[in-house]
Amino acid sequence: MITKKIETKFLDYLITYPDNYNPDHSYSIIIMLHGYGASMNDLSSLAQPINSNDFIYIFPNAPINLNLGFNMTGYAWFPIETGDYESSSNLLKSTIKKALEEINYEKIFISGFSQGGMMAIHSGLFSSNKYDGVIVLSSKLIHNNLIIRKNLPKDTKIFIRHGTLDNILDINEGRKINDELQKLGFDIDYKEYKMAHEINMNVINDLSFWLSKQKGIKNE
User: Fold this and answer.
1) By the 8 A CB rule, do 75 and 38 touch?
2) Beta bridge partners of 193
3) Which of 39, 89, 113, 144 is 20 to 30 Å from the Cα of 64, by its Cα?
4) Cβ atoms within 10 A of the Cβ of 215, count?
5) With b meaning 16 or more CB within 10 Å and e meaning fewer, what string describes 196-209?
6) What is the pLDDT of residues 109-153, one digit of tens each?
7) Is the Cβ–Cβ distance between 53 and 43 less than 8 Å?
8) CA atoms within 13 Å, Cβ hemisphere of 174
9) CB 62 within 8 A of CB 43
């Protein structure tokens, strides 16, 4: 796969294309949002094992710099103590719009791990942007004020995975997301694994199959 770094006045991001990318062909887009303290590079290695032929991946970099010590820098979508994601949400929206300007695309999926999953829910599913699917990995709800706008249950599918051994975001947080979205009528593919705060091969394989199903690709 081919990966390029793009710098914008909004958020920087990585974009990954299939090796046989054809600009005249219509691709589905997967936007992947990293977790607290990580960067746009953190999830980029997932593109290959998920699906290297049928999707274009966009990996935005969160806007808030974090000093991790030992001359290392990480990034956050919002301060943990406030949960105020509005500023980052506006930057993310503008970045996605910019990234999609020159791509011939069809379906769009927004996904995130941990704090990135919180953004996928609140700045994705419950935003004014239209998404065909939302992928939430080891995450939680920021608040319970969940108002459906453009992403209607009949149109937007949900994929949730969480670890029963997660000591960062307890398994009950994943179960709560599932329960609350079910109440709103969403079609949810939910599963728990005996894993910690991570994305393991079970999750990757599940996600690969689920995305192929959403795109109408027959799995062998």
Assistant:
1) yes
2) 163
3) 144
4) 17
5) ebebeeebeebbbe
6) 999 999 999 999 999 999 999 999 999 999 999 998 899 999 999
7) no
8) 29
9) no
